[in-house]
Amino acid sequence: MLNLSELENVHADIESVHEVVQCLKARIDGIYIGINILKNREGNYFYELSHYYRGADNAGPIVAMENRYNSLEEAAKGALQAATLCYRSTDEGGSWLRNDSFLQ
Fold first, then answer.
1. Cα–Cα distance, 104 to 97 (Å, whole number)
2. Which has the least CB within 10 A, 36, 53, 88, 104?
């Protein structure tokens, strides 16, 4: 296991280091969504999504959603809930937008 606190101290300009502990791929209505589950130095898990859904009424993505979990499984469920929160299969004109900060 990596010592993330030690890695953060390699250089004064490093603000944080997170370990990618799981990569998932979900298919939602024909679109593949990448999910990275990460762990911080405190041992909390969180997720990053490759895409966010923007509804035709410009709903989403919700940025203020909770994104800190105690387990890997909770973080994976949270990621799937976040990915589908604004998605509606009957939404004419909605689209999946790429998250440019997502690392592959």
1. 16
2. 104
Interacting residues of 25 by C-beta distance below 8 A, sequence separation 6+: 32, 33, 34, 35
* Residues present in the chain in total: 104
Report pLDDT digits (tens) over 7-49: 999 999 999 999 999 999 999 989 999 999 999 999 999 999 9
Radius of gyration of the CA atoms of the chain, in A: 15
Scanning the chain, the segments in alpha helix (DSSP H) are: 4-8, 72-84
pLDDT score for 63: 58
Closest CA to 20 of 50, 45, 42: 45
86 neighbors 55 (Cβ within 8 angstroms): yes
Centre a 10 Å sphere on the Cβ of residue 96 and count the other Cβ atoms it contains.
19
Q: Running DSSP on this structure, what letter comes out for residue 42?
A: T
